[in-house]
Design goal:
mainly alpha
Length: 134
C-alpha cells in the first residue's frame, strides 16, 4: 500500500474497509492489472480472479512453485515481482501497456482452456499420470 501511495495515477481499494462482492467483481472487471501478493501462501483466489476478470496479474516470482496447470508462466500468464518488491514501481508503471494487456489475454485464454472438454481431459490425464508415477 505504501509503495502504491507514492505513485501517481494508481487507484486501489481501501484495504481497511469491507467491500461488497458485487463491487469487488466490478473492480476486477475494470482493472488493467490485479496485484496478488502472497497471503497465507503463494497461491490465492485473487490469482484466478485475475484470470477470470482479464486483468494482468502481478505477483512475486513463482519460479519456485510447480503447479498444474502451469498458471505461473513469467511474462506469459503473469508479471513476476522480486520478492523484496524492489521492482514494484517499475512493473506497476506499465499497468496500461499493450504488453500487459497481451499477458492478461494469454493468461485468460490459458485458464479458460481447462474448462473445455479437451482441457478437462488433459487435466484428468495429468492426475492419472501423477498417480501412476507414485
Amino acid at each position: 500500500k505504501e509503495l502504491m501511495m507514492e505513485m501517481e495515477g494508481i487507484k486501489f481499494s481501501d484495504i481497511t474497509k469491507r467491500i461488497p462482492k458485487e463491487e469487488i467483481i466490478r473492480e476486477g472487471q475494470n482493472s488493467k492489472c490485479i496485484l496478488s501478493p502472497f497471503g497465507w501462501g503463494e497461491i490465492c483466489g485473487r490469482d484466478f480472479e485475475a484470470f477470470c476478470y482479464g486483468g494482468c496479474m502481478i505477483k512475486q516470482s513463482m519460479d519456485h512453485c510447480v503447479t498444474y496447470p502451469d498458471a505461473y508462466q513469467p511474462g506469459v500468464t503473469y508479471v513476476p515481482l522480486e520478492w523484496d518488491f524492489s521492482d514494484f514501481k517499475e512493473k506497476l508503471a506499465k499497468a496500461a501497456s499493450p504488453e500487459y494487456k497481451e499477458i492478461a489475454k494469454k493468461a485468460q485464454e490459458y485458464y479458460k482452456f481447462f474448462f473445455t472438454q479437451e482441457g478437462r481431459a488433459d487435466f484428468a490425464k495429468h492426475i492419472v499420470n501423477e498417480l501412476e508415477r507414485k
